[in-house]
UniProtKB/TrEMBL annotation:
<dbReference type="Pfam" id="PF04951">
    <property type="entry name" value="Peptidase_M55"/>
</dbReference>
<dbReference type="InterPro" id="IPR027476">
    <property type="entry name" value="DppA_N"/>
</dbReference>
<dbReference type="InterPro" id="IPR007035">
    <property type="entry name" value="Peptidase_M55"/>
</dbReference>
<protein>
    <submittedName>
        <fullName>M55 family metallopeptidase</fullName>
    </submittedName>
</protein>
<dbReference type="InterPro" id="IPR036177">
    <property type="entry name" value="Peptidase_M55_sf"/>
</dbReference>
Amino acid sequence: MDNHGSTGEDPTSEAKGPRILISVDMEGVSGIVHPRETHPDGYDYGRARALMTAEANAAVAGVLDAEPGAEVWVADAHGSYRNLLPEEIDRRARLVRGKPRPLGMLGGIDERTDAVLFVGYHVRAGAGPGVLAHTMSDALLDVRVDGRSLGEIGLNAAMAGHLGVPVVLLSGDDAACAEVRELVPGVRTVAVKEALGQFAAAGLHPEEARERLRRTAAEAVAGREEVRPFALSGPHTVEVDLAAAHTVDLAVLIPGVTRAGGARTVTFTAADFGEAYRVVLLLVQLGSIRPA
């Protein structure tokens, strides 16, 4: 695949087509199966960054195959949000990186966005078997919205849906692909690996995975009008199971958040999904705080 390095010009200045966001996580990328590959302190993190960047570029290429005039935004959506290699990203795309930022994994999305693609995504905590399954972070054991368990796939799809934006593609392991199909009829999926457990998979060769991703991204963007946004009507009752009891102690300092259902569960009511999503993002940040 050609590398399109930056020239310093605005990469969206000549875009006349649809605005497309590609949200890129790492756990669902082909060839990745272990936390030591997905964490900056891990021995194989550099390789994982390169694999993640290559899959992001495959998705960008597919979008532009279908819509040469598209305005393409790529959101680094893993961990620190500083994993994708900026100098290797297709120059035709705009890269959103760093945190904290509005709307987390969906950085760059707004009501002008025509479609979103999830690349390298994974199944929710407690589901599977799924490679590196979790929900937002290890601090959250489960998130239930009106009694329905939602992981990163569901939470991000519903946030996009709140803005009227459909999820038209997801790539990841077979479990992640099955999860999104339950939520979004008509979504296209690319299973780049078959989950054998939390830290094991049988995967496609990375080049094969990228070829399939590019081809399917083009199909997804071309057929975006066929997919309806995954929109949930509010108000919402949200329950979050937290991994650490002291995180609950911090969470109940948020106005409207109360203990419920046990020592590690909190609940709150949100007027709409945008509000629910933002509180969940705040709970994730509170979960990173360790006792002094």
